[in-house]
Design brief:
Blueprint (H helix, E strand, L loop, with lengths): L1 H31 L3 H17 L1 H10 L2 H21 L3 H29 L2 H15 L1 H5 L2 H33 L14 H12 L8 H27 L3 H29 L2 H19 L6 H15 L2 H9 L7 H30 L2 H19 L6
């Protein structure tokens, strides 16, 4: 119980960091003199830093174990948060986001590795969904509560509070995550063999049709929720920080409900592929709704809430992939999948910043995301069950 609580706390910290930029984006742009393109780059650097270190994270998880890996990297996130809070120049904020992303890299991945070693394959998706559902409190905190905190203390003061929370989470991981161990049946490997294991995961042909949706599914959700939803609501509906925070809070609550619902359905029926396909199709429809030129506010709200409810298929996709990954490669396998997912977020957020700078069109942005997700869904439809 204490171990799962520590994992939930750590994963919640990762959720908090990835969502807070959307709430304070207008204030950051003003204070740090950021253009829309630069704001997109700033948000994407968390995910780029997160993805960039997934290979060493995967090796560390299999070689050193989750506890030592998670705590060591969290120290980097703490340092990055301090740098962000002190930033007065764009380069400092950029560097801080890279450090924070790198520091959060093993939090979700490490949690899934611990779950994979403590529970049976049949319970993996359900237990992962439970951890992610509870951890989504971090995403919820990044909405209205963080907006109110930023309004009272300023965005810099709010970041100092987040740094303190991260420090407490690292302490909990030291105290409560169980002893580090390799996957059952694995043999000690040299560093060269461990690095080669990443390539072995990438060459599993059964995973290839799944890779595109791993790359774009979560990325489309976070490009809207984690970056452009706030500015869109401010520009088109003149919502202030608090009102933006309330609507993003609603989106986070539906994400929480959706993750838990997916976990229950997977446990009851064990049909991951139809769940992923159906949920992704509903997200595409949601993006179509908000791609209309300045849709009525109720329709915009419906579209965002639908995206939250059906868009978080991440745990189901990882569970689908897990069946094709050998136990001795599990740490590196989950890390490689996480690399794809978070590199996709960084890539789409960067491209979205360029698109917004060039065309100034939220409708084009949302429609482009819908097309990207549709192509990924077509590829995923060709994947096989395990």
């Amino acid at each position: 119980m204490f171990e799962l609580s520590a994992l939930v706390f750590a994963t919640a910290i990762s959720m908090l960091y990835r969502g807070l930029i959307a709430v304070i984006a207008p204030e950051l742009a003003l204070d740090l003199d950021l253009s829309e393109n630069q704001l997109g780059t700033l948000a994407s650097l968390f995910f780029i830093g997160f993805a960039a270190v997934q290979i060493p994270v995967g090796i560390a998880l299999d070689r050193l174990g989750p506890r030592l890996t998670i705590v060591s990297f969290m120290l980097i996130a703490i340092a990055g948060t301090a740098l962000f809070a002190l930033s007065t120049e764009r380069w400092a904020a950029y560097s801080a986001q890279l450090l924070i992303g790198a520091g959060c890299a093993p939090l979700v991945t490490g949690s899934m590795v611990v779950i994979s070693r403590r529970f049976s394959p049949e319970r993996f998706a359900y237990m992962t969904a439970i951890v992610l559902t509870l951890a989504n409190l971090g995403d919820i905190f990044s909405t209205t509560p963080f907006a109110l905190l930023a309004e009272y203390l300023g965005w810099r003061g709010a970041l100092w509070i987040v740094m303190a929370m991260t420090s407490f989470s690292a302490l909990a991981c030291i105290l409560f995550i169980g002893r580090d161990r390799q996957a059952e049946g694995s043999q000690p490997e040299s560093l060269r063999q461990m690095v080669a294991g990443i390539g072995q995961v990438a060459m599993i042909r059964s995973l290839w049709p799944i890779f595109p949706i791993m790359l774009t599914g979560y990325a489309c959700l976070m490009t809207v929720r984690g970056l452009w939803a706030g500015p869109w609501l401010a520009d088109h509906y003149q919502l202030g920080a608090n009102d933006r925070g309330y609507l993003l809070l609603g989106m986070s609550l539906t994400m929480t409900a959706g993750m838990f619902l997916y976990g229950l359905l997977d446990r009851r029926f064990g049909q991951r592929k139809p769940l992923v396909m159906g949920g992704t199709l509903l997200v595409i429809i949601s993006l179509g709704l908000i791609s209309l030129p300045t849709p009525p506010f109720w329709l915009a709200t419906l579209g965002l809430l639908m995206m939250g409810l059906f868009g978080y298929t991440y745990a189901l996709i990882v569970a689908h992939c897990r069946g094709f990954i050998p136990p001795q490669l599990m740490g590196r396998g989950v890390a490689f999948l996480t690399l794809l997912g978070f590199f996709g977020v960084g890539l789409l957020q960067s491209l979205s910043g360029w698109l917004m700078a060039e065309y100034q069109s939220y409708s084009l942005l949302h429609a482009s995301l819908a097309v990207i997700l549709l192509l990924a869904l077509i590829s995923y439809s060709r994947s096989r069950l395990n």
